[in-house]
Amino acid sequence: MHEALLTLGFALVTASILALSAVAFTLEYAVTNVANVSHGEILTAGAYAAYLVHQRTGSAIAAAIAASIAGGLVALAMHSAVIGPFIRFGASPTIVFIATLGMSFVIQNLLVIFFGAANVAYTLDPGAPQQLGPFLLTPLDVEIVASAIAITLALYLIIARTRFGKALRAVSQNRELARVTGINATRVAGATFFLAGLIAGYAGFVLAESVGSFNPYFGFSFFLITLTAAVAGGLGRAFGTMVGAVLVGLILEFAGGYISASYNLAFAFAILAIVILVRPRGLFTNARRTVFE
Amino acid sequence: MTAYLVSILTEGAIFGIMALGLNVIWGWSGDFDLAYYGYIAVGAYMTLVLTVGPAVAPAQYILGLQLPYPLAVAIAVISAMAVALIVGLIALRHLRGIYFSIVTLGAVYVMYVFAGQYVPLFDGYNGLSGLFDPMGDWFSLDYLSYQYFFMGLSLAMFVVVYLLMWRISGSRFGMALRTLREDERAAAAFGRDIYRLKLKGYVLGAGVGGFAGALFAAYLSAFNPSAWSPVEVIVLYAAVLVGGRGNIVGVALGVLIMGMLVQESTRFLPSVPGLGQLNTLHPQVLLALRGAIIGLVLILFLRFRPQGLLPERRYVDRQPALDATPGNA
After folding, report:
1. Which of A183, A281, B123, B185 is the most buried (most CB within 10 A)?
2. What is the maximum span of chain B, computed from C-alpha positions, in angstroms?
3. Does residue B122 share a domain with residue B49?
4. For the whole model, what pTM was predicted?
5. B320: cis peptide before it, omega within 30°?
6. For residue B134, is the peptide bond before it cis, meaning its omega torsion is within 30 degrees of 0?
7. In a domain? residue B326
8. Does B89 touch chain A (CB under 8 A)?
9. Which of B109, B292, B302 sits opposite A266 (nearest CB)?
């Protein structure tokens, strides 16, 4: 029982990071109807920015902010340079999917050119593990989980209560109809990408912290798990995606803890394949399709 | 210089066979399959375990036979097709578009993780090695003449596969695959069994990929998880796209352009005045530069010339008598 609770504690941390990454991915999907394969590179950019700023300033908070901003800018650039033009040109979702795969390849290789392919060690002092309710967590773990919850709440408020949130929901439900009512769909999608990038960049920072190192390919492997969570939750649905992230985080940590962590990716994809085959529109779907439901 | 030429011609021929196989799946059948490099890997791994003999501890792998190379290649191709059949049976049943791509991406990562982690299969991260100059002793060739022999063999195999693809391209089967790409419902309305046809095309393409993998294993004389990665399939997609998706002449041209021009030109970049420092930056820089260029070319072609340099010829109905528009009947 004790062992299981320990694993549950780790799963909570994994799930928090996964939820941040997956919710950002699903926001990108919601406003463009395109699965952005280069989403992982936003996390990688965040990790590199955090590392560089942390080295210069020595402040973890500055590093977190830098990661967030770098992620936002990279995501915005992805939308303005590739995804947006492709959509305006009328390319099919599969074609844009291939283009984002190409973009992911370009960014990974540019990072190798500038920073080299070697692993960069990057850890914060996690502090002494403490008993928190039934779990044994370090203060760093607690910060990760708490910040994930705070970001999710803030995101909910933005989407549910602001004018921009309303426009976002409109574009995600029906892009053409939204445009007819005077919403600049391209600008809303760009702003959504920036918002998603802020979250994903921060996720890259906390992921690098909790793993302890990163390299130019680090975001891509996490993207594969993100994809599983997002598809399980239903592509384009923020709330379902979070539940999907928690489920996938739990399964990965328990499978990793009891079988072997080296098969994590294989497990994630086994789940993904089963979900797609059995419930292709996500585990928690009804007929309506909105960002937050 | 000759040795260099021999090596790029051999690599180019093998790369060309890979691209021709991919063209069946993406060019004709129209499915963006991300598992394709997995079938190449299955072909390469199987060829090695069938030819290099029993494992010597601490190495361990399955089979460990010493079959003659051509027989091993045949079994390797069948293995690649069998794996593709399993993946295809699952992925082609209902899934299209990005869902198909995502499931095949999953499939290839499962293969990659198992090949790398499950040591009893192909010796994990160490991989397999020891296939030296297959068929060389049949003709008692020395090291140098073997290089020429293998280049000739690879080029001949490319020609054989090309001619085969040329026959299939104009056959009823090839046409039927294209109708699936253009309009599945119309094909179904004309009585085509979509699932079966797609599956046939998928397994055929994977078999060609496995064959290329078998040649690749002999060329490298070893294969391990650092010799391949699922995302390398992007390079093949770039070649098919640039040349002309669906058109085998175009695919051959794409291989020539991407494989030889882009891949090899970066090798000469440091000799361009002013770029000499490229070599001193980082050992992987040239490789990464190559990757970035390939990705960029892929995006630019998708956006500005998705039909490629040599577009597929549209088939025109030459029987106007069958015109069935209302008013003409």
Report:
1. B123
2. 80
3. yes
4. 0.90
5. no
6. no
7. no
8. no
9. B109
